[in-house]
Amino acid sequence: MLHPFPHEPRGETPLVEFRGVTCGYGGTTALVDVSVSIWEGEFVGLLGPSGAGKTTFLRAILGAVEIYRGQVLVEGRPHHRGRAPAGYVPQVETVDWNFPVTVEQVVLMGFAGRGWLPWAGREERERARAVMERLGIAHLAGRHIRALSGGQQQRAFLARALVSSPRLLLLDEPTAGVDIKTRDDILHLLHELNHDGTTIVLTTHEINAVAAHLPRVICINQRVVADGPPAQVFTPEVMSRTYGAPMTVVHHEGLVLVAERPHRYYEEHLARSRAREGDGDA
Ligand code: ADP
């Protein structure tokens, strides 16, 4: 690993600590020997190819995977079943949209932890309304969740996670399937929440548009490949090891841009065209 401890120990307990964690499902390992500390107030992005274990990382914090080795500690304590240690925003694609439920009902589920309580009290409804207003979806409260755009659905699930004012917010691909403007709005909102003190961990496939703008990224491919600020972590070597494919890293006016290297076929095609152009010049 390149940067085993990017954040100096602060003499306090990490909010989340993975100690040599190997975990998975039904005896099959998804993450191997992961040791990571996340401190209060951080904003962390998890990067890696599909199947790398990013969702599993979030689920391990929630206590929803089998731990084969090591320990996951939240606020210094092993996870206790039944006590949700964090607000969780699932991947929109994993949600069953046939479930007949309105935006307000989705948001009120955030109080119950699991399942909607039809007897939500007045205080809870007011809190839900305040959060929906902050996220710009209050006018959609009575709308069926299925009748919303991707960005609005994302916000409804974010509102559900936020009603209980969690110290820690876990988001699985919060910008997948939304347009550029909505993606930037969601990121802006998350930065604001982080600024207000919420610790945030998200997974993303968007290296340049999302991960490059976060203070800390963790590259995962079953194991932690690298951990640190994007400027240090985004090297051709780390990115290639993370994605298992050649990657090019370009530094341009303070920006780091990561690109998949063209396939060999394309490179050969380019080389042939250049050679032809060279012939023409001569
Ligand atoms: P990512 O989020 O990076 O795409 P995941 O954490 O979803 O990766 O998956 C990591 C590995 O665990 C994959 O091999 C996946 O097939 C497996 N996996 C994920 N969820 C389950 C599950 N509920 N049951 C069995 N295997 C699972």
Structure in words:
Helices cover 32% and strands 27% of the residues. The chain is an alpha/beta fold. It has 2 domains: 1-84 and 198-282, 3-Layer(aba) Sandwich (Rossmann fold); 86-166, no CATH class. Strand 1 and strand 2 form a beta hairpin. The longest helix is centred in the last third of the chain and has 18 residues, at 264-281. The chain is globular and about 80 Å long. The termini are far apart. It binds adenosine-5'-diphosphate.
Secondary structure topology:
Layout (H helix, E strand, L loop, with lengths): L15 E10 L2 E11 L4 E5 L6 H8 L4 E9 L2 E2 L8 E3 L13 H10 L9 H13 L15 H13 L5 E5 L7 H16 L3 E6 L11 E6 L1 E6 L1 H4 L2 H8 L3 E6 L2 E6 L3 H18 L1
Parallel strand pairs: 3-8, 3-9, 6-7, 7-8
Antiparallel strand pairs: 1-2, 1-4, 4-5, 9-10, 11-12
This protein binds adenosine-5'-diphosphate.
Adenosine-5'-diphosphate (ADP) binds next to α1.
* Computed Rg: 21 Å
The CATH class of the largest domain: Alpha Beta
Instruction: Write down the CATH topology of the largest domain.
Output: Rossmann fold
Nearest-integer average pLDDT:
86
H/E series, N to C?
Answer: EEEHEEEHHHEHEEEHHEEH
Low-pLDDT windows of residues: 1-9
CATH architecture of the largest domain: 3-Layer(aba) Sandwich
β-strand number: 12
How far the N terminus sits from the C terminus, by CA atoms, comes to: 49 Å
* Sheet with the most strands: spatial strand order: 6-7-8-3-9-10
Residue share in β-strands? 25-35%
Question: Structural class, from helix and strand content?
Answer: alpha/beta
Number of domains: 2
Query: What best-fitting shape do the alpha-carbon axes yield?
Result: globular
Main beta sheet strand tally, sense and closure: 6 strands, mixed
- Bound ions, cofactors and other small molecules, one mention each: adenosine-5'-diphosphate
CATH-assigned homologous superfamily of the largest domain: P-loop containing nucleotide triphosphate hydrolases
Number of helices: 8
